[in-house]
Design brief:
heterodimer; A: 350 residues; mainly beta; 7-stranded antiparallel sheet; 27 strands; 59% strand; disordered N terminus; B: 23 residues; mainly alpha
Chain lengths: 350, 23
């Protein structure tokens, strides 16, 4: 650990310049931060991007008060079950989704403002042994849950009042789904990765499981982050949290793989790596927005890549006060949130 | 990549797979 702390970030070209610090949020509650995200919020006819921070027992909504100044609007107390993560809901408004549980997700809750009672509330959306969850555009949420006998994959259409308008069951694959990603530009398509290292494709409208395509054995335990359909191919952004350092590439963070859904064949398109020379596991966790990837590294730095070029474009060195622990793209894009465990969040323009 | 690597490509793969897959 000491060696990790003292090792500088060995990158020649990428620097902080492509990330411009916009503002800092400081949480004085003293609780350990577990996640950070953004949400569109409309109040009194004004729609603005707000920041959401989560500790194990509370989720706070932050509002921009003035340039470089943020204030807490409200804190939801969730003290019975620990918060594990915030689930971003792209292009929704006035709704925050959180996953809670002990080691694994046991419940999903919606946090919202009720104009009927003029108060902030939260409601239980789903319980179970939940393995993966993703928020999709247009107020949709997909999750997979597992019982001893079977796996259930379900899409829920969310309502502004913290409930569900509709539910659609998706055909489960035999293997456990480990992650979901929406397909850019194809509203009814959804991809997932499985514990058997396959990519699966669903039709969200019909619930059909359209295709299962094996990724290969070179990069086990792949996690999907994003997908794009173009020219008859399905491009999937994968991360490989358990990938070993290789001589040719160094430490791999993200990979873009092109799949032909008709044949199930695939080929690697780009690899986003750190330069070789630093042994050990680099990648702790990451997030993808459009074609930009961000990851927190073991050194406490945050690295950003252009995934289409496979190039590292920016690095936030470990902060002398504390290592970066969280890196998330804002739902609006072009903004990166970097968070420390002490609750401090830096908002960068990218 | 070339077409030979990935096999024949269809721009309407989503519709075609939806028509073929079990309901």
């Amino acid at each position: 650990d000491v060696a990790e702390q003292l090792t500088p970030v060995l990158l020649d070209s990428p620097r902080e310049e492509s990330l411009q610090l916009v503002s800092e949020l400081k949480d004085s509650s003293g609780s350990c931060a577990v996640d950070v995200s953004t949400v569109w919020w409309e109040a009194a006819g004004c729609r603005e991007l707000r920041v959401v921070t989560a500790s194990e027992s509370a989720v706070s909504l932050w509002k921009p008060l003035a340039p470089n100044c943020w204030g807490k609007v409200y804190t939801w107390r969730l003290e019975e079950v620990p918060v594990i993560q915030i689930v971003p809901l792209p292009n929704t408004c006035n709704l925050v989704c959180v996953a809670l549980g002990e080691l694994e997700i046991g419940e999903i809750r919606l946090l919202f403002y009720s104009s009927e009672t003029d108060s902030f509330k939260h409601s239980l959306l789903k319980t179970g042994n939940i393995k993966a969850v993703v928020g999709l555009k247009d107020w949709r949420l997909v999750s997979s849950s597992r019982t001893m006998q079977e796996q259930q994959v379900e899409m829920v259409l969310l309502s502004e009042t913290g409930g569900s308008k509709d539910r659609q069951t998706l055909m489960p694959p035999e293997e456990t789904v480990t992650a979901f990603a929406e397909v850019e530009g194809m509203r009814e398509a959804l991809v997932g990765t499985t514990a058997g290292n396959s990519v699966v494709v669903w039709n969200l409208k019909t619930g059909q499981l359209l295709r299962k395509m094996h990724i290969g054995y070179s990069y086990p335990a792949s996690i999907c982050h994003r997908a794009y359909s173009d020219s008859g191919l399905l491009f999937v952004v994968l991360s490989h949290p358990h990938a070993k350092e290789s001589e040719s590439c160094g430490s791999l963070a993200f990979r873009v793989v092109a799949f032909n859904p008709c044949t199930g064949r695939s080929t690697g398109v780009t690899f986003s790596c750190l330069p070789p020379g630093r042994a050990g596991r680099q990648y702790l966790e990451g997030d993808v927005w459009d074609t930009a990837g961000a990851a927190v590294l073991m050194s406490g730095a945050v690295a950003v890549w252009d995934l289409l070029r496979g190039q590292c474009t920016a690095v936030l060195p470990p902060d002398p006060i504390g290592h970066w622990a969280l890196a998330r793209w804002a739902t609006s894009g072009a903004r990166l949130l970097a968070g420390r465990r002490d609750g401090t969040v830096h908002l960068y323009r990218y | 990549c070339s077409e030979s690597d990935l096999g024949p490509i269809s721009l309407s793969w989503f519709e075609e797979l939806s028509a073929e897959a079990p309901p």
